[in-house]
Structure formats: structure tokens, C-alpha cells
Amino acid sequence: MGKKRRGPTLDELLARPWCYYCERDFDDLKILTLHQKAKHFKCERCHRKLNTAGGLSVHMSQVHKEQLTEIENALPNRSGLDVEIFGMEGVPEDVLQAHNQRVATQYHQSEAERQAVTGNPPAGSGGSGPAHKKPKLEDLSDIKARLAAHRAKRAEGATGGSSREMTPIGTGQSTSTPTNSNAQPAASISPAPQQQPPVAQTYPQPYGAPPIPAASPYSLASPVYPALSPAAVSPYAPPSAGTPVAYAAAPPGAVPYPPPGYPSHVYPAQPTTIPPGSPSGSYPLPTVPTPDPNNQVRPGSLPALSGLPQRPSFAAPALNMQQMQQMHMGHPAPSSTSPEHANGDATQAPSHVASSVDELISSAAKEAAASEKPTKKEKSKNIRMVYSDENISPEEKMAKLPRYAFSRKAFQQETALGEVPGSIVVGTIRDQDTVVDPAQ
Amino acid sequence: MSSNQYTLASPPTDAISALKFSPDPNSTRLVVSSWDKNVYLYDLRDENGAVGEGKLLQTFEHRAPVLDVCFGENENEIYTAGLDWDVRKIDLNTAEQTVLSSHEAGVRSVVYSREHNLVISGSWDSTLHVHRPDAGANTQSVPATIPLPSKPFSLSLTATKLVVAMASRALHIYDLKGLALLTAQADGDTVEGNRVELEPWQRRESSLKFMTRCVACMPDDAGYASSSIEGRVAVEWFDPSPESQARKYAFKCHRQTAEDGVDVVYPVNALAFHPVFGTFASGGGDGVVALWDGISKRRIRQYQKYPSSVAALGFSGNGKYLAIAISPGFEDGKEDISDGVVRIMVKELGETEAKAKGAK
After folding, report:
1. Contact (CB<8Å) B304/A382
2. With 60 as the cut, is the pLDDT of residue B112 above it?
3. Where are the alpha helices (DSSP H) in A119-258?
4. Which of A3-17, A174-188, A295-309 comes out lowest in average pLDDT?
5. What are the residues facing B121 on neighbouring strands?
6. Which of A27, A178, A319, B20 is the most buried (most CB within 10 A)?
7. Which run of H or of E encompasses B183?
8. Where are the WD-type repeats located (chain B) (predicted)?
């Protein structure tokens, strides 16, 4: 039972002692009484802490000759003196009920929110647990099967097929592949010396090996792909198209192309004692891809079945894939753990397993989004302003009421105020007269 | 809890528009202006000087509802502003009323600067009138008229500055010294149409997104607080330096969550700074009065809800009393006001009741 325990249960929450006056809850009764003494039963004049409201009342009247009228720091409806509270004692039944109700609703609400966000089943609900677990178990075997099928299909389809499957850009890719393959050797021959500084920097670094002649990484790289492609086509086909583009077009562009991943794929599989000078021939490249199909499955779910050293070699292509895609298509590959998901979605109708997983994820996301949006809306909606006129102040509104209507003219006649400019006043007075008359 | 609270006898018969204590520390007088066309003068002390229940000393009838009132040079002099477009001076001893000037619309607010001996009134005709009451004695003084971009809703001043909160969320801060100089000059220049274009010391836009309801300046002349119809209070500083401006903030208050989860937002009708501690009180349409520490950004306390809207608040000159004017229908102009709902509560504050507790 390695299950992480999160949050208190409802029962625990309900059992917590809480303060009648301010509805705060506490870890235990002792702290509650201390809180009440400090916050609610403290004498304002001499800071003496009394035990109860009654005690404080007596103290106030005897010592300070004052009448205690309300409890300090209390909620507006709880500040009365009529209830004698000590700790949890004396809390009226209806208030207690209301509190429990409130705690319970709060608990359920937060629970529901959390569920919506995490997509987890409600804690301890046995019914839905297995329902969720089963498809997950199916996932594994299905993924394996699907992967195998997919791989076979890919192998058949070779590079052209794969690029067609990937995206609409596929056409552009397929056309670019030949040119790239052309460019690659070209790069290794003539432009290489020019580009050497940047390239050499990006390349040798990850190797961690003694400095290699700039030509060697290229000659290394190019054989690697063809050698890999027949066996582990799918993940590598796009890279083979991609690498040259990155290198030939923009040397700095090579930076996102993960140097650590790329070479690590080739090298860690190899004994590190390779003489830097000997390039392609010595690599037992066909052997490298063979563990790959197995490895491909592994990251998806199975954690540590085989030897550790090979894991990085496989994690690298997965990274490559995503970043390649990002480079080529302008959007990141779906961030699912195994590349198969992305491929599966793009190539064939997703199997029910994949879809069920996807649905789970998307529905959880939707729920989360849905639960978030209304709360945001509620926040803006659920405010009701008592006075919402932005331009006319309450006083001005009141002044317009007939009973407050004031006619300056009428008073002018009585009190004979001479200096008021006539024209302006006359205009307004007519208005006011019409208002006043119906009132009269 | 500990504060003694009592209701002043013989309150106004209609909604209260303003309530002011005499700024004199030894005075316990307060004036209240009302929509029932009267200004009420109360004193918390009885004839023997003992502070008791407080009693009504006098009423001063006006021609129209009175919208604002303030004390003048001493506790025997008040200025009033009202719907009859007039700004008046009333001598409390003789009950003599003098019209200082007439606006071209209802006069919303009037303030008096003791330091510069100026009476400034703001009217819905979008002007300020700046009066020099001492000059008014010898000549037929015409007040300087300062045009404003919008209707002023609230005025507040410190020893050196005047803050005018207007419609369209505009806010002007004037330097009182310049204002005094300019009006003194202008007074000599022309007799009629004494219109003065005065560039404010600072033009600001309200930090609040909704209509400004009230503005109140800190007693230490450092800044001001403003409130809006949307349950919010902003605290800002005069100092235009970026450091000081970075200190400004706003917070929500005077809101209630109804049963259906709707947040009911009340306008914050009144703000008043404590003259000694520099804390401030806010009163809202929800009938709640809360004390805030503007420096440490904490609420000091919140008092029990009153049955209707808090229309005005005032601390006494020595800061020992807080008067709360309660009247319904201030926001929506409710038709009838039944007896007993318009009330003036006076709280006798404990030694440290309104004192900032300091940051924890």
C-alpha cells in the first residue's frame, strides 16, 4: 500500500474543534480554548484573559464598570452574549448542524474540484477503481501488439511511407530527402572546413571524447542513418531527413537538435574506447537497432526490465523525434511518453486502448477546464453591486426625487437673492417647475 | 466589545448626509446635516461638562436638503452646503446664516482649512469655490471659481493639500498654499466671474475601477484613502516618487456572501481617519463599520452590523469618540424612511481600540 495519503477525510474534518465566534477550526481543544481566551474573551482595558463570555462580562462590570455588549472579533451574527461558550461546549445545536453542513459541503466541493483537476477517482470509492484499472492493464499488451503491427507496417513502407504518414509536410520532406542526402556528403567535403568551428563545437562536446576531426562526425552520422533505417525505421526516418536540413541550412539551428541525445544513441552503445579516427566501419550498427523495438515499448510503461546502460540509448531517439517534429512541422510532437502515440494517431485509426487513454486525459482536461471556467465566470458574475450607477452618485439620484426637489426661483421670490444670474437660472427653473408641479 | 456605545437622542428625521466632529481636541460638539433640510448640532457633554448620552443643542433650518457641513475656525462656526446651491456660514451662537456663494447646481461638499483660512466647496456644476471668509467681512468678496473636469463627489484636505475626488474616476490634488495665493490675487483683480484656471498639483486617476464614493486624507499629510461604490478602499500616498507610489494598495471590504453564493458588494460610503493614531474607519452600505491600519494593511476590528447603511463617520478631535451616522436608502433612494432607522451612534473608544497593533 504505497498509496499517498492526501488531505484529511470528512470525518476528521468534522471532528476538528472549531470556534463558535469566528468559525475557525483548530487541531485540538486546548488550542481552541487558548484562541477563545486570546481573541474573544480578552478584556480590552486590562488585557486580562477570561475563560468565558460571562466571566468577561462580570469582569468588565466589576473592574471597569462597563457593560459588555458584544464579543470581540466575532462574526457579525455570533457576537451575542446570550450563549455561554467554552471550547466546544455551549454551541447551540442548530449552529453546530450548520457548521457540520458547511464543512461537509466544503469538503465535497473541494473533493469534486480536485477530482476534476486530477481526473482521479474519488478516494476510497471501490466501484470505479477497477473500472479504471482494467483498461490500463489492457493498455500494455495492446500497445505492444499495436507497436509490432505498426513497426511492420513502417518497415514495409520504408522512408517514403513514413514521411507520408507523418504529416502533410511529408511531400516536402520526401522531396527534400534526396537533396539533403546530397547535401550531407557535400557538407562533409567542402563546406565542412568553413563550418567547422560551430559544428565542431556542437558535436564533440556531447561525445565527451577526445577531439575528433570535423569530417568524422559527418561521415559517422551519414552511415548511421542508413544503417539504422531498415531496422528501426519509424523513429529514425524523419531524423535522417531532418539532420541535414538543420546543419546545412542553419548551423545554430543545430542547437535544438539535441547533441546529447543524438550522439549518445550511437556512442554509449559502443565501447567508449573507439579510436576517434575510425569512423563507420567498426560500429556494429545493426546490433544497435535490435534492442530498440523492445526499448520502444519500455518507456511507455515497463520501468526497469533490462540492463540500465541501454536505456539512455533509447530515450535519445524519443527526444529526437519530438524535437525533430518541432523543427520540421513547427509544432511540438504530442508529449506522450512513447512516440507510438503520435504515430498511431496520425497513421491509423487509434486503437481503443489509445483512445481510451486519450479520452481519459482529454476528458480530465476538459473537466478541469470546465470546472475552472465557471468559477472564473462566477467570480465576475456572482458579484452583485448594491449601487452600480457609474456616473451619477447616490446623492444626485436622491436629489432628483420629487420630495427633495428644490426650486430656486420660488425661494428667490421669498428671500430676494439679487445676485443670481438670471438667464441660467430661468432655464433650469422651468425644468424644475415642471417637475415640482405634478408633485404638488 | 469594550466600547460603550449609545444612540444620540433626537436624530434627524430623514437620511443623514454628513457628520462632523469639531476638530478641536477639547470639543465634543458634532454637527450633522440631513436631507430633512436641517443641520443638527449635538454635544456629547451635558451642562456640567460630564460626557453623557449627548444631546441636541440646536437645529438650523435650510431651504433645501443639506448635503455637507463642516466646522470653521472654532467650534462656534460651521459651513454648510446643500441642494439650494448655496454655501453658507452659520454662527452657532447667534444662529446667523450668511451665504458665502452660490453655485449653479447642488453643492455636494464643503471643507474648511484652518491653516489657510479657506472654505472650499465642491458642486455638481463641476466647479470648486474657494472662499476667504476673513475677506468676506469687509468687502463683497466673490469666491474664486475653479473649473473641474467632472463633478466633484468628495473633498478632503490636510494641512497643505486638498484632494478632490470626481466623477469619471478623476482625482485632483491641489496645493493649498497655491490655492490661497491665487484666490487672494484673483480676489483683487475682478469682481465678477472670478474664474481661475488652476493647474492641480497632481492629477490622478482613481486606483479603483468604480465611482469614487469618499476620500479622506491622513492626518499626517502623507496620503489619502479613497473608497468606491464597489466595496473597495484604496490607500495612496501624495509623494509622487516611484517608491511611494509603489506602496499604494487597495483592498476589498463591505461585502457579504448571500445564500446563493452571490457576493453582494456594498458601496463604502464613509471614511474617517483617526486624528491621533492615523488609523481609519470605513463605513459601508452593509451597515458595517471597520477600523483599519493603513500602514500595516491590517484590519483592527470590525463592529457589529448596524440595521442600515452607514452614511457618515467621524472621529472626535481627541480621537476618543467615533460617531456613526446610520440611515437607510442612501444608495437607492428608497422612498419612505420609517422612524427610528435614522440614528447616530456614538462609540466611546477604549484606550487602544483604534490603535494600530503593528505588523505581526
Report:
1. no
2. yes
3. 128-166, 170-189, 191-202, 204-207, 215-231, 233-244
4. A174-188
5. B110, B129
6. B20
7. helix B176-189
8. 100-130, 268-302
**C-alpha span between A94 and A75 (Å, rounded):** 16
Task: Give residue B49's pLDDT.
Answer: 64
Please say whether the beta carbons of B118 and B179 come within 8 A: yes
Amino acid at B227: S
Asked if B1's CB is within 8 angstroms of A44's CB, the reply is: yes
The amino acid occupying position A333 is A
User: What would the pLDDT profile of A316-331 be if each residue is shown by its tens digit?
Assistant: 444 455 555 555 555 5
Q: What is the largest CA-CA distance in chain B?
A: 64
Instruction: Please provide the DSSP assignment of B124-177 as one string.
Output: TTTEEEEE-HHHHHHS----EEEE-SS-EEEEEE-SSEEEEEEGGGEEEEEEHH
At residue A247, what is the residue type? Y
Listed in sequence order, the residues at least 6 apart from A47 whose beta carbon sits closer than 8 Å to its beta carbon are none
User: Are residues B160 and B175 in contact, defined by beta-carbon separation less than 8 angstroms?
Assistant: yes
Contact assignment for A398 to B350 by CB distance below 8 Å: no
Which residues in chain B have their CB less than 8 angstroms from residue A78's CB?
none
- Could you give phi then psi for residue A375, rounded to 5 degrees? -65, -40
SS3 call for A416: coil
- The cell for A194 is 568553413
Quickly count: other Cβ atoms within 10 Å of residue B86's Cβ: 26
3-state SS, one letter per residue, for B63-96 = CCCEEEEEECCCCCEEEEEECCCEEEEEECCCCE
Query: How many angstroms separate the Cα of A231 from the Cα of each of A265, A310, B330?
Result: 15, 17, 83
Residue carrying the nine cell digits 492641480: B200
Contact B53, B8 (CB under 8 A): yes
Contact B1 A394 (CB under 8 A): no
The average pLDDT across B172-197 equals 73
**Spatial CB neighbours of B10, under 8 Å, sequence gap ≥ 6:** B40, B55, B56
B64 and A406 within 8 Å at the Cβ level: the answer is yes
pLDDT at B360: 55
Rounded-to-10 torsion of CA A7, A9, A10, A13: -60
What CA–CA distance (Å, rounded) separates B253 from A230? 71
Residue type, B188: G
Closest CA to A256 of A243, A268, A269, A265: A243
| Of the candidates A321, A304, A194, the residue with the CA atom closest to the CA atom of residue A257 | A321
For residue range A180-197, list pLDDT tens digits in order. Answer: 444 444 434 444 444 444
Residues 169-208 of B with CB under 8 A from A: none
Q: What is the pLDDT of residue B251?
A: 92
Q: Which residues contact B84 (CB under 8 A, 6 or more apart)?
A: A406, A408, A411, B62, B63, B64, B106
Q: For residues A362 and A348, give the distance between their C-alpha atoms in angstroms, rounded to a whole number.
A: 19
**pTM score over 0.80:** no
3-class DSSP state of B244 = helix
B229 touches chain A (CB under 8 A): yes
Nearest to A222 by CA among A258, A271, A187, A273: A187
The interface residues of chain B toward chain A in range 42-81, judged by CB-CB distance below 8 A, are 63-65, 67
Q: Which pLDDT score, from 0 to 100, does residue A353 have?
A: 52
List residues of A whose CB lies inside 8 A of any B CB.
43-45, 56, 60, 64, 66-73, 76, 79, 378, 382-391, 393-399, 401, 404, 406, 408, 411, 415, 417, 419-420, 424
DSSP class of residue A36 equals I
Contact A11, A18 (CB under 8 A): no
Angle at Cα A199 formed by Cα A194 and Cα A200, nearest 5°? 95
What is the longest distance spanned by two Cα atoms in chain A? 118
Q: How many residues does chain B have?
A: 360
Mean pLDDT of chain A: 59
What value does the CA radius of gyration of chain B take, rounded to a whole number of Å?
19
Report whether B16 contacts B311 (CB < 8 A): yes
